[in-house]
TrEMBL record:
Gene3D superfamilies: 2.40.50.40. This is C-C motif chemokine 27. The keyword Signal applies. The keyword Methyltransferase does not apply. Residues 32-91 form the Chemokine interleukin-8-like domain.
């Protein structure tokens, strides 16, 4: 059993080793829809990393309404009525 790489590690390695621009073209983040909502807590450390927020409408290509929090390397879809997010947004609005 020596010399085997766990599948997860191999996948990660492949991801790191393929800076293929076509890979990103295949899945442009702008057209990606939230298909499910994140349910975990939204700690301030996470919210601080948000680059921008978009509201995904349920009418066009996506069937789910959600706030999409765009972080540097991923996006998180949150229920549009999430209280902690609403409070945070309000706070942001007051700051600027
Ligand atoms: C939504 O808000 C509640 C607090 O009102 C929080 O406990 C929950 O984790 C939040 N998160 C998401 C992503 O829905």
């Amino acid at each position: 059993m020596k010399g085997t790489i766990p599948t997860g590690g191999l996948l990660l390695l492949l991801l790191l080793l393929s800076p293929d621009p076509r890979a990103t073209l295949l899945m442009p983040p702008s057209t990606a829809c939230c298909t499910q909502l994140y349910r975990g807590p939204l700690p301030n450390e996470l919210l601080k990393k948000v680059l921008h927020i978009a509201l995904q409408e349920a009418d066009r290509d996506c069937y789910l309404q959600a706030f999409v929090l765009h972080l540097a390397h991923r996006s998180i879809c949150v229920h549009p009525q999430n209280r902690s997010l609403a409070r945070w947004l309000e706070h942001q609005g007051r700051k600027r």
